[in-house]
Amino acid sequence: MDWANYIVVGENIHCTRSIKSGGSLTVSTPLGEGIRFGWQGQDLILPVPPDWGTVSPPYADGKLRHITLAIYHAYAGKGELQQLGLSYLCHVARRQIDAGAGFLDVNVDEYTNDSAERSEVMSWLVGLLGKHFDTPLSIDSSAADTLRAGLSACRKDIAPAMLNSLSLERLNTAELVVEFGCHVIVSAAGQSGVPADVDERMANFSKVVGMLDKRGVGRDHMHLDPLVLPISVDSNNGRTFLEATSQAKKQFPGVKTTGGLSNVSFGMPNRRLLNLVFARLAAQAGGCGGIIDPVSMPVRAIAELDEQSESYQLAKNVLTGEDMFGAEYISAFREGRLA
C-alpha cells in the first residue's frame, strides 16, 4: 500500500459531531462551560450560551455539538463571539489538514430544519473554509439544494470538490456531479435501504457506475463506499465490507474505494484499536482511503501497525468474523491485554 496516496476525507466539520459536556475538552468559566482550543498562538475558549440546551437539545444529555456551537457564534453572532466561532472552525479544519486530510467533509444538515437557511449556512461555511485553506471540500447533505449550494460556493482554482453521496436512493444528485465536475462518493445503498450482502452491493454499484459512465464521469472521480456497519450488530459486517471492497476494485477497474471506517467499532471496547486495524485490512483489500478523523486515526499509525502483535491479531479476528460476537476480544480487553 502506498500510504502517501491514501485519500482521507476528514469527517469532523459536521453538525452532529459532539464532545462530552464536562469532559477533558471543556472548561468551567465564571459564565459557564466552554471549549478550550488554540488558534494562531492564542489559548482561547469557545463559550456555551446559558440557553444552549434549548438551541441544541442533545446538550441536556451531555452531548455538546461543538461544530454546531461554533457555527452558531460565527454565523449569527457578533463581535468577539463571532470571532471565537470563526477561529474554532479554522482550528478544527487546520488540525484535520495537518493530520493528512485530502478533503474536508462539510455537513450542516443538523444546524437547522429550514431548507433555505441550511443552504445559506452551507454556502457561508464553504466560503469561510475556502478563504483560509486550499484543501478541497466534500459537500455532504441529504438535500440536493444544500449540495448545490455547497458545490457552487467551492473554489474553482484548486482540486475538484467532492459530493457525498450518490446512490440508488438519490440518483438526482448525479446531475450535480456532471455539472460541477466533482469527485463523488458512490454509496452501495439500494432504493430501499442497506444491501444484505456483497452481491447486492455489487448490483447497486453496477447501476450507479453504469449511469455515471454514460454521463462521462471519469472512474478516477468515483469513490465507491460498500457501507461499513457495526460488528456489534452482526459479526460478519466487517468481513462483508472487506469482501465488497475487494470485489468492487476487480469489477469496476479505475474506481477508488472508501468508507466510514470507524462505524465498524460502534458498541465495542477500545474502538481506536479496531478502527486502525480495520483501516489496515480495508487497504489490504484494495481500499484507497477512508472517511475518517485523521487526528484520532493518523495514516502513519495505520501504516505502522505491528501485524504480529497480540492486539492486532485479536482485533483482526473480531473484525473478520473469526472471533464470533467478539468473545475473545472482549475478554482480552477486560484482562488489560489490548494495547
How would you summarize this macromolecular structure in one to three sentences?
With 339 residues, this protein is α/β, with parallel strands linked by helices. It has helices at 52-55, 66-76, 79-98, 115-132, 144-153, 174-180, 198-214, 237-251, 271-284, 299-303, 310-319, 327-334; strands spanning 7-14, 19-20, 26-29, 32-39, 42-47, 63-64, 103-107, 137-140, 162-166, 183-187, 222-225, 256-257, 289-292. It has an eight-stranded parallel sheet with strand order 12-11-10-9-8-7-1-13, with helices on one face.
SSE inventory with pairings:
Blueprint: E1 7-14, E2 19-20, E3 26-29, E4 32-39, E5 42-47, H1 52-55, E6 63-64, H2 66-76, H3 79-98, E7 103-107, H4 115-132, E8 137-140, H5 144-153, E9 162-166, H6 174-180, E10 183-187, H7 198-214, E11 222-225, H8 237-251, E12 256-257, H9 271-284, E13 289-292, H10 299-303, H11 310-319, H12 327-334
Parallel strand pairs: 1-7, 1-13, 7-8, 8-9, 9-10, 10-11, 11-12
Antiparallel strand pairs: 2-6, 3-4, 4-5
Helix pairs in contact: 2-3, 4-5, 7-8, 9-11, 11-12
What does this structure look like?
The chain is of the alpha/beta class and 339 residues long. The chain has a domain at 160-334: TIM Barrel. It has helices at 52-55, 66-76, 79-98, 115-132, 144-153, 174-180, 198-214, 237-251, 271-284, 299-303, 310-319, 327-334, and strands spanning 7-14, 19-20, 26-29, 32-39, 42-47, 63-64, 103-107, 137-140, 162-166, 183-187, 222-225, 256-257, 289-292. The strands form three sheets. Strands 12-11-10-9-8-7-1-13 form an eight-stranded parallel beta sheet, with helices on one face. Strand 8 (137-140), helix 5 (144-153) and strand 9 form a beta-alpha-beta unit. Helix 2 (66-76) packs across helix 3 (79-98), helix 4 runs parallel beside helix 5 and helix 11 (310-319) packs antiparallel against helix 12 (327-334). It is globular and about 55 Å long.
